[in-house]
């Protein structure tokens, strides 16, 4: 029992993306001092019949499940005198069905109008959502504005270039939702569902978004570093960043492709590949020469105009497809980290698969986004429903 989830296939019904115990009604964990978590695998843990959980003398167990947990009937928890964290069991697909029945309609109307008027909104929102989830979890902490007491996440250097369209879409949706059902819908849920709907609008795969997140109570720029990959990081470091959040290499590649197939990067992020690359080459030899020359013209004034940028997928920048992966083999990768995907033996086979098979990419991306969307979510008293998405309900002075 020390390693309860050593082999997931021995525990329950593994359907590919979830591990299910359909008949388990009660569970007792007794005298297991070395047990830290009942489940810490990569799949969704589903216990549809579980109603009672009993825990005694498990002194090192602080989390029942570190992944998405679906226990709709769980009502009784005896935790040996301490509070037991029950994963994300409060997230459901129909969380607002009774309290805010127009929630999904309002989100869809808002994102549709915004995407039609600003076609880069989908890419912007996907990026902001990912940056949010990878730091404090999917809790809308990246939306908080700094004040005289606190430098917030969005002002960390890696977040300074986050597109304003994403923040605007959340503000618009929140305003409409506060009129329809005041104080009910969290900013975190708005961002999560808006992202999914926008991805679908530009041709990406549909994936489930469970709802019920609360907005986080912490947003500090100092806590961002080390949680997000940078373009100049080695592939080993990038893999480790994703691994620390529970993602496999394949999931990392899928998420990168999803962000870059419709994304864009500022010139400063790839300037070292097109200007003074080395003593022997002005541009990176791994980059298509004509592509490099075109980028040199686009970014000629980037030091004065820091907003100058280029699409990560030069062929189909506004369409969510697998062209990004195909481009990498043509020397059309924009960032150093893009090029590394096809030179590192750990990632190259995955890139080859996704370049040949768009369905494989879509399936991997959808699965990975379902995982991303529940990273570190807050429920119950762990968070709040903000009145405004850029401000905590109570001013934080630390």
From TrEMBL:
Residues binding Ca(2+) 2, per UniProt: 261, 313, 316, 321
GO (cellular component) term, any one: extracellular region
Catalytic activity: 2 a phenolic donor + H2O2 = 2 a phenolic radical donor + 2 H2O
Cofactor: Ca(2+); heme b
Principal subcellular localisation of the protein: secreted
Name of a matching Pfam family: peroxidase
Residues under site feature: Transition state stabilizer: 127
Residues annotated to bind Ca(2+) 1: 132, 135, 137, 139, 141, 153
Subcellular localization: Secreted
Keyword Signal applies: yes
GO biological process per UniProt: hydrogen peroxide catabolic process; response to oxidative stress
Keyword Metal-binding among UniProt keywords: yes
Keywords, sorted A to Z: Calcium, Disulfide bond, Heme, Hydrogen peroxide, Iron, Metal-binding, Oxidoreductase, Peroxidase, Secreted, Signal
UniProt cofactor note: Binds 2 calcium ions per subunit.
Domain Plant heme peroxidase family profile residues, every copy: 90-393
Domain of life: Eukaryota
Gene3D superfamilies: 1.10.520.10, Peroxidase, domain 2 (1.10.420.10)
Enzyme active site: 131
GO MF, any single term: metal ion binding
Record-listed heme b binding positions: 260
S-S bonds: 100-181, 133-138, 187-389, 267-299
EC annotation from Swiss-Prot or TrEMBL: 1.11.1.7
Membrane spanning residue stretches: none
Entry similarity comment: Belongs to the peroxidase family. Classical plant (class III) peroxidase subfamily.
Known role: Removal of H(2)O(2), oxidation of toxic reductants, biosynthesis and degradation of lignin, suberization, auxin catabolism, response to environmental stresses such as wounding, pathogen attack and oxidative stress. These functions might be dependent on each isozyme/isoform in each plant tissue.
Official protein name in the record: Peroxidase
Species whose genome carries this gene: Nyssa sinensis
Classification lineage: Eukaryota, Viridiplantae, Streptophyta, Embryophyta, Tracheophyta
